[in-house]
Specification:
The structure is a single chain. With about 325 residues, the chain is mainly alpha-helical. The protein contains 18 helices and 2 strands. A two-stranded antiparallel sheet has the order 1-2. α5 crosses α6, α5 packs across α7 and α13 crosses α14. Bound molecules: zinc ion (2 copies). The site of one zinc ion has 7 residues, from α5 and α7.
Length: about 325
């Protein structure tokens, strides 16, 4: 299996534009509004804001995020069925694995290798989570590790407060952009840059596919008691919102609640409940002490579903070079 190497190609100008800092001139209001709306569909659209607004929530940009929460209330109209719950749970599990195994342990930390095809498949599944593209996600996560629990950490509950670390930080103009200088190893793949630029594309396709599946099942298997609207609300909106809040508990709660096995400069914690919810990410103090391992549950009893999934993928030849936990790391453990 070939380890993918980023092709050496120049970044297109519009991609570079998406990485740059803001220019601090106010543009006419209608043009600014149009560009802001365009960013819902094309994240490379540049919107200038004053420096003072860089760290404030961009409420227009936040509309889809708020709307997705409100769409979950649709369960009152569409009802529920076992098949809808099953699809919602299966999509939670598959997408949580894509986020933890690939967005986090692969794209952000390069803790194993894989082929360009597998890389793209899991980048696409990750993109369906509505947590932006793989380059954006990895660039901000690397920033988090570099400056964990300092003023330069994008989401520290200790520095910025709990709510900000959970749902505020990514809604600001400053954190909207992808700094490609933090992910030079990934930015050379045009397919990954496409997913990053049009980060709404995969979620929309998933939502349409779920609606179509519901309509089809209603027609060919009416005994299942589902419909297009029900599959859309449960399979897409509820599953995605639960997945989102579970993921960001690692930014908020995993720097607040739990035990500290390792003396790290940050405030990261190990927390079994968060580890169960996020397929292993709750062993966050382990991870901050040694982020280079593909494994985050360092002891055999520390349940790490992502690690088991990656071991299975390695056995199937889909990934390779999983990085273990070195003995010197375990020797530094306090319990
Ligand atoms: Zn952390
Ligand atoms: Zn990490």
């Amino acid at each position: 299996m070939a380890t993918p190497r980023p092709p050496r190609i120049a970044l297109p100008r519009r991609v570079e534009a998406s990485t740059g800092g803001a220019t601090h001139q106010a543009s006419p209001k209608p043009a600014w509004l149009l560009r802001t709306l365009r960013r819902w569909f094309d994240t490379s659209a540049v919107v200038e804001v004053d420096e003072a607004r860089e760290d404030r929530i961009d409420w227009l940009r936040a509309v889809p995020f708020v709307a997705m929460h409100l769409a979950c209330l649709g369960v009152a109209w569409v009802g529920v069925s076992p098949i809808a719950l099953l699809v919602a749970a299966a999509l939670y599990a598959l997408r949580m694995f894509a986020l933890t195994g690939f967005y986090h342990r692969y794209f952000s930390h390069r803790s194993f290798q894989t082929s360009r095809t597998v890389q793209f498949v899991f980048a696409t599944i990750g993109a369906s989570c509505v947590q932006r593209g793989p380059l954006w996600w990895a660039a901000h996560h690397r920033q988090h590790h570099r400056h964990a629990d300092t003023a330069n950490d994008p989401h520290s509950p200790g520095v910025h407060g709990f709510l900000w670390s959970h749902v505020g930080w990514f809604l600001t103009p400053r954190n909207f952009r992808t700094d490609l200088s933090r992910v030079p190893d990934l930015a050379g793949y045009p397919e990954l840059r496409w997913l990053d630029r049009y980060d709404i594309a995969v979620p929309v396709l998933l939502a349409l596919a779920l609606y179509g599946l519901g309509v089809l099942l209603q027609d060919i298997a009416p005994q299942l008691g589902t419909s297009g609207g029900q599959m859309l609300v449960w399979g897409f909106f509820v599953s995605t919102i639960v997945l989102f809040h579970a993921t960001v508990t690692i930014n908020s709660l995993a720097h607040r609640l739990g035990r500290r096995r390792f003396e790290t400069k940050d405030d990261s914690r190990n927390n079994l409940w968060l580890a169960l919810l996020t397929f292993g990410e709750g062993w966050h103090n382990n991870h901050h002490f040694f982020p280079g391992s593909s494994r985050q549950g360092f002891r055999w009893w520390e349940v790490d579903l992502t690690w088991y999934g990656l071991k299975l993928m390695a056995a199937l030849g889909l990934v390779r070079g999983l990085k273990p936990v070195p003995a010197w790391v375990l020797a530094r453990a306090r319990y």
